[in-house]
Amino acid sequence: MTTLGFRVDHQQTQRQALSPRFQQAVRLLQMSSMDFTASVHDVLGRNPFLEAEDGDVETDDAERADGADDGSELPAYDESDGLSAELSMPAEGFDGDSENDRDLWRSDSRSSLPHADDGELSAIDAMAVEISLSAHLHGQLNLLPLSPRELLLARAIVESLDDDGYLRTPLEALTDLEVLTPQVTVSDMQAALRRVQSLDPCGVAARSVAECLQLQLPSIACPQTRALAARIVGDHLSALAARDIHGLARALGESPLRVQSVCDRIRRLDPRPGWRFSNERVAYVVPDVLVRKIRGVWSVQLNPAVVPRVRLNEVYAALFKRHRSADNADLAGHLQEARWTVRNVEQRFSTILDVAEAIVKRQQHFLEFGPMAMKPMGLREIADEVGVHESTVSRVTNNKYMSTPCGVFELTHFFSRAMVSSNGSACSGTAIRGLVKDLIEAESPAAPLSDVEIARQLAEQGLVVARRTVTKYRQLLRIEAVDRRRRHA
After folding, report:
1. Each residue's pLDDT tens digit, 298-322
2. 129 CB neighbour count, 10 Å cutoff
3. What is the pTM of this model?
4. How many angstroms separate the CA atoms of 7 and 229, rounded?
5. What does DSSP say about strands 426-428 and 50-52: parallel, antiparallel, or unpaired?
6. Does 139 share its domain with 178?
7. Which end of the chain has a smaller Cβ tally under 10 Å, C or N?
């Protein structure tokens, strides 16, 4: 007979666990400037203990050492206390009387928002209203003397257009969309299509690129140029796209100069007429760090446009401390999040500034003389200089940009592995890309250099680079292949 036994074992293990504040700090650190700004604004909108602060950004060492965003010390806070500490912390500066709560609330002038006077337009009322392509076309259809049937078919065409303004749906498929008497035919839809194609913008409702360009040819004033452009668009569109001027001249029996002039006029047409009504926002690159040379010394400072200044609302924090109870755990969490956010925002920009200063210190020759003077540099060098881990430097440099007199670069642009030349000196990949660009810019237009020839010339200068590496660098520089460059010449 088997006897069952029970035993209790006690083991001690050590594990690394990230605190909620550290997790938030890491998440904010690796965000781009646009995502970070959106995240901070989201916290400002839902956290009553946070408020935005107006004023310019000061990036001097004294302020960063103080760790206060507005120049004043933040309330002492032990993050290990948790929510229970917020509920048990004694209120300071209050005698328990609640008569002055209304005055204390009103004393915070930042809690009131400006409103427009009666009869006056506010800033929101004065904002321009964006209009879509379909709304623009429907508005024009409403002004035309159309019967209800014709208007309905034209609206069906408009609603079938894509974002480019093209009609990708066959007309045969559109005949089944509307149940009318008599039955809608293909000829009816063709008439509706021609009616929509006559609207603004010119070229809308085209079914191909050639048709879109043909619809815009009447805008060419010169009859001879318009006739030649119609021949090119109708019969030689592929040669136009390939920029084969000499082939077009032979096929059309015209001089290359004449064909080049007509092709340039065609390229001024709009192949995507619907894009001008697109509601998509263009995400422009905004530099996080500004680098300028002042009195012979390179200076690094944060870009004030991407530094949201936030601070703790002391009035709301004082009111919470005075009226706290066990039922206010949610508010205690908001207060804790507000304090974390203020400190993490400061830590993010302090780390970015430290890393940028270390990069500029090592890459001053690049700022002075251009890509040819770029030094090879790794993450470990910057991490040792700043006193952080390599992973932190990696998070800081991704999606962060630096504005220099040479242009705007991502911080990762300054990092590259060392490539040893024949004489034993180290050269960065950025410098080699600069050499490739210089060789292509100095080539003869009639005899452009191939990737193999570029690799051979680099080897003559002591840089042994494979042909596929030259191809990769050329593609990163957005330079066309030798055949396309020769054809353009």
Report:
1. 999 998 888 777 888 887 788 777 7
2. 5
3. 0.59
4. 92
5. unpaired
6. yes
7. N
Residue-wise pLDDT tens digits, 448-480: 889 999 999 988 888 888 889 899 989 988 888
To which residue do tokens 């002042």 refer? 294
Mean pLDDT of 330-345: 82
Give the CA count within 13 Å in the CB-facing half-sphere of 320. 24
The CATH number linked to 474 is 1.10.10.60
Distance CA 67, CA 342 (A): 9
Q: Which contiguous run of DSSP H or E holds residue 382?
A: helix 379-386
The answer to whether residues 338 and 50 touch, using CB atoms and an 8 Å cutoff, is yes
Does a structural domain hold residue 3? Answer: no
| Tokens linked to 303 | 């870009």
Q: Give the span between the Cα atoms of 452 and 467, in whole angstroms.
A: 6
Start-end of H helices in 126-244:
133-141, 148-159, 171-174, 186-197, 209-216, 223-235, 237-241
Range of the domain at 179: 133-197
Q: 242-274 burial by CB neighbour count: b if 16+ within 10 A, else e?
A: eebbebbbeebebeeeebbebbebbeebbbbbb
Q: Rounded to whole angstroms, what are the CA distances from 102 to 48, 97, 138, 426?
A: 17, 12, 54, 70
- Domain boundary (241, 261, 277) is at 277
pLDDT at 128 over 90: no
Co-location of 150 and 182 in the same domain: yes
How far is it, in rounded angstroms, from Cα 473 to Cα 467? 10
Distance CA(443)–CA(441), nearest Å, equals 6
Question: CA 157 from chain center: how many Å?
Answer: 34
How many domains are contained in the chain? 3
For the record, the structure tokens of 94 come out as 């209050």
Per residue in 156-188, pLDDT tens?
999 999 989 999 999 888 887 667 778 888 899
Confidence at 10, pLDDT banded by 50, 70, 90? confident
